[in-house]
TrEMBL record:
Record organism: Vitis rotundifolia
Compositionally biased region (Acidic residues): 471-488
Name listed for the protein in its UniProt record: SPX domain-containing protein
Family the UniProt entry places it in: Belongs to the major facilitator superfamily.
InterPro entries: MFS, MFS_Domain-Containing_Protein, MFS_trans_sf, SPX_dom, SPXM_SPX_plant
Taxonomy, superkingdom: Eukaryota
Chief place of localization: membrane
Region (Disordered): 467-496
Length: 697
């Protein structure tokens, strides 16, 4: 992996080189501090010297930022004089030239925002390196003391009031120069109708990325674990625009929604279906889990297939899912549990979630990628809620010729029809994105200025203060040894196998994957055995089970809104992570049937606590995972999204298998015995979390 210092140098604007953070110098100072402490120098002297050096670097950046803002303001003032002159004697050609002059100022402002972005990333990484080397939470101390001071230099970067003023001046003047057909209204009179100009849109997007704090949209987008590289390549945004097709994105989100409906629509009726075919009710675990078993393998080949095409994997997925659901529905009339299981296996073989993730990561422009990622998570949550609800509505029984349509078979028939309709829509509307061989021709035809602007518009400006697990520097290129900048080409590319991907995982990443495994296992136990448990203890009907599962599914988005918009702004991610694990543990403990007779309030409340806590835990865990995972896992077949999917899918397979195996001991023992592994794994994950993050700080 190319060292961050080298990447930083490559991204710098040449004429401003002297004003960037001196990352190489500061990295060497960190190594010197380590030697000084070993030699007996007191730690407080090191902290004082490092703080002074950071203050100097930030002051250099801020003063240059203010100087450039002043130059932009002067240019706008001169253009304002020309604008006033044109008001007296309008001239179409001069108006056009003036409009382009304002846009040129906007493009220079984009360069300035890109300058701030690069420095923010460099500061964040050097702070993280210092914390990692000395085991001291210096980042928290430094940012809190500097950001809250009235003369803070950091506030100049974070608040960038001058940038807002420049954007406002450019927007207002460009708005006035537009042909308003006799209207005397300005942008201030119509705030609901913002100025539609590509330069202004790019500036606003850059400012939003630069200043974004943890909010619902950002939180939800990370929930999808769609990996991105930390520093963008200059042409990526241009390529994204060539690839992007809204209807194709919509089709990917529809695929995500339908697949989640397909997964959970059988949960309320799987036990009855199994018994109608002569099997035990607890065989529902195998029926539900068969889909997850096949998904373990389908995720890999779909991820590899997406390297070459998106259209063909989606076509294949739709056909396989149509066949699988048809087999699932026909198993009743064939009186065959084998056909039933094969149908669910086929459905799992059609899991194209790896393609859906990859399409968003590769083909959606950066400026809307967060919204698309949030849409992916929302579609999954909505499908999870709609599946059981739809099953609850399909309480009818009739025959056409020799084919039976009842509460057991209708989920299969409904989904078969849905996938057939989706297949037709896909064949009509999907547009295969431009592949890399075609992209090179597009890039050669583009001139230098758009490429530069695309690089500036791209600007993945992450906030300066992120938790210090953020993107661990286990990558080859960001170790303390500068020789890594000469790393061979094969060491810089993506992982080429599951084994090589696993070797890129740091201890903190392994803990995050363990947590993900735990929460998926606990949730699968709760959902998959709900029908059997509630029938045994409370004699619930299929409709009642469906309503319960539907209500659980409906909590996903509201919980993410609360966590993303409020809780994550009050507490650190690590604190929310540990608290959520403890709440999952409490939910599991309350679910046991030990002393008092098992009641509906106990089951519902404990299930709700467990499910909601697991949802909070999943969002925070994936947000942290997206930060600490190596950037080499942001691309290729064996990427971070695939690893998390495999961890979650294997957890579901084991959970569903556990339900079926324990079922042979009797339904009376099912609840407590299946909860025991959840309890042990949850305790293990809490211990691992506590140990890992305390060892880092």
């Amino acid at each position: 992996m190319v060292a961050f210092g080298k990447k930083l140098k490559e991204r710098q604007i040449q004429e401003w080189q002297g004003y960037y953070i001196n990352y190489k110098l500061m990295k060497k100072k960190v190594k010197q501090y380590a030697q000084q402490i070993e030699g007996g120098t007191q730690r407080r002297h090191v902290l004082k010297d490092f703080s002074r050096m950071l203050d100097t670097q930030i002051e250099k950046i801020v003063l240059f930022l203010l100087e450039q803002q002043g130059l932009l303001a002067s240019r706008i003032a001169k253009l304002g004089e020309e604008h006033d002159a044109l008001q007296q004697q309008p001239n179409i050609s001069q108006i056009y030239e003036l409009r382009e002059a304002y846009r040129a100022v906007g493009r220079d402002l984009l360069k300035l925002l890109f300058f701030v972005e690069i420095n923010a990333i460099g500061l964040r990484k050097i702070l993280k390196k210092f914390d990692k080397r000395f085991g001291y939470r210096f980042t928290d101390y430094y940012v809190k003391t500097r950001a809250n001071h009235p003369y803070s230099q950091l506030q100049q970067v974070f608040k960038h009031v001058g940038v807002g003023a420049v954007v406002g001046a450019i927007s207002r003047n460009l708005g006035d120069l537009q042909d308003r057909q006799g209207s005397y209204l300005s942008i201030y009179d119509q705030p609901a109708l913002p100025l539609q100009d590509p330069v202004i849109d790019s500036i606003k997007a850059a400012v939003d990325r630069l200043t974004h704090s943890t909010n619902f949209l950002h939180f939800l987008a990370q929930h999808a674990l769609i990996m991105q590289e930390e520093l963008p390549t200059p042409v990526e945004e241009h390529v994204d625009d060539q690839k992007y097709h809204f209807m194709s994105l919509l089709l990917n989100l529809a695929n995500t929604f339908l697949y989640m409906v397909n997964t959970y629509i059988v949960v309320p009726t799987a036990d009855n279906y199994s018994m109608s075919l002569g099997a035990a009710a607890t065989v529902c675990g195998v029926v539900i889990g068969a889909m997850a078993v096949a998904q373990v393998f389908s995720s890999v080949y779909f991820s590899a297939w997406s390297n070459k095409s998106y259209y063909r994997p989606l076509i294949f997925s739709s056909i396989v899912l149509f066949v699988g659901n048809t087999m699932y529905a026909l198993a009743y009339d064939l009186d065959s549990i084998v056909v039933l299981l094969l149908g669910r296996l086929f459905c799992g073989l059609g899991s194209a979630r790896a393609v859906n993730r990859r399409y968003i990561s590769d083909c959606v422009p950066l400026k809307i990628r967060m919204q698309a990622s949030a849409g992916f998570v929302s579609a999954s949550a909505l499908g999870m809620a709609c599946g059981p609800a739809l099953a609850g509505l399909l309480q009818i029984n009739f025959k056409i010729y020799k084919i039976t349509f009842n509460e057991d078979t209708l989920p299969g028939w409904v989904m078969a029809v849905a996938w057939l309709v989706y297949l037709i829509w896909l064949m009509i509307s999907f547009k295969e994105p431009v592949r890399e061989t075609q992209e090179s021709n597009i890039q050669q035809e583009s001139n230098a200025e758009p490429v530069e602007n695309d690089a500036l518009e791209k600007g993945l400006a992450q906030p300066l203060l992120l938790s210090s697990e953020d993107k661990q520097e286990d990558e080859d290129g960001d170790q303390d040894n500068d020789v890594s900048e000469e790393a061979p080409e094969e060491s810089r590319g993506p992982a080429t196998s599951i084994g090589s991907a696993y070797r890129l995982l740091t201890p903190s990443v392994k803990v995050q994957l363990l947590i993900y495994f735990m929460l998926k296992y606990a949730m699968e136990i709760l959902l998959s055995e709900s029908s059997v448990v509630t029938t045994y203890y409370f004699n619930w009907s299929t409709s009642t089970v469906a309503i319960f599962l539907f209500c659980l599914g409906l909590t996903v988005l509201p919980v993410n809104i609360v966590v993303g918009s409020y809780i994550s702004n009050m507490f650190e991610d690590r604190q929310i992570l540990l608290a959520s694990e403890i709440m999952v543990l409490i939910g599991i403990l309350l679910s046991f049937n030990l002393i008092i007779p098992y009641s509906v309030p106990q089951y519902v409340c404990s299930g709700l606590i467990m499910f909601v806590s697991a949802e909070v835990l999943e969002g925070v865990n994936l947000a942290l995972l997206s930060r600490v995972m190596s950037s080499r896992l942001s691309r290729g077949t064996y990427n971070g999204g695939l690893l998390s999917t495999e961890a979650g899918t294997i957890a579901r397979v084991i959970a569903d298998s556990t339900i079926t195996l324990v079922g042979y001991l009797g339904e009376s023992k099912l609840l407590n015995i299946t909860l025991l592994p959840s309890l042990l794994i949850c305790i293990s994950s809490i211990i691992a979390t506590f140990y890992t993050y305390n060892s880092l700080y």
